[in-house]
Write a structure and sequence with these properties.
Radius of gyration: 21 Å
Order of helices and strands: EHHEHEEEHHEEHHE
Structural class: alpha/beta
Helix content: 25-40%
Largest sheet: 4 strands, mixed
Number of strands: 8
Shape: elongated
Number of helices: 7
Strand order of the largest sheet: 1-3-7-8
Distance between the termini: 13 Å
Length: about 200
């Protein structure tokens, strides 16, 4: 089943974004048009001021499998929607108010057709990837989408902690006190990781 949300978008992070733990446009000072980014944004050599995201977790997971990258989940409910009057207009980072992030929702049929005009390839690219573009001059907060290996690792750690508590309690002669799941995670130091559970 397709997993889409009105308030969240997903981004497959590049290696430098994962290393720095933050979302970065390839060219923050770029002046590319939205249409140009849609047509070329997935090409490794292409750089722009836009950050490509998708409303679909399924689409993000498909691309993440190809690259082995992590997926970021971004809440856009506090971002400003941007609708360019001129389809050839570029949204520039320098034109934003301080600490501002704007998004261009290309899942909106009317907006997508307005930007792509008669360019079928542009329209098809944006529609199939359920694309949403971000332009920001501030830190974009996000959470990592929890992966199957993360779940397995957490489960193993919980079991290890519980075994340790039982053994320790038997040694000192006390009845084992089994922590709830949130306390177990605290004991393992997992609360620092911004995970989202699905």
């Amino acid at each position: 089943m397709e997993s889409c949300s009105e308030y969240f978008v997903y981004r497959v992070l590049r290696s430098e974004e994962m290393a720095q733990n933050k979302i970065i446009a390839k060219d923050p000072d770029g002046k590319k048009t939205v249409r140009a980014h849609i047509m070329n944004g997935s090409r490794g050599w292409y750089k722009s001021q836009y950050v490509s995201c998708t409303r679909s977790l399924d689409v993000a997971q498909k691309y993440a499998k190809k690259t082995g990258s992590r997926i970021a989940k971004i809440n856009i409910s506090n971002f400003l929607m941007y609708w360019p009057e001129d389809p050839d207009e570029a949204l520039l980072q320098k034109d934003l108010q301080p600490n501002t992030t704007k998004f261009i929702d290309l899942t909106d049929d009317e907006l997508r057709k307005h930007i792509c005009r008669e360019a079928c390839t542009c329209n098809n690219f944006a529609r199939s990837s359920k694309e949403v573009l971000l332009v920001s001059n501030t830190t974009i907060p996000f959470e990592y989408v929890l992966e199957p290996n993360d779940i397995i690792g957490i489960a193993i750690n919980v079991v290890v902690v519980l075994i340790y508590i039982i053994i320790f309690s038997l040694i000192v002669g006390h009845t084992p006190i089994i922590p709830n799941s949130s306390n177990a995670l605290l004991m393992m130091g997992c609360t620092h990781a911004p995970f989202t559970y699905f």
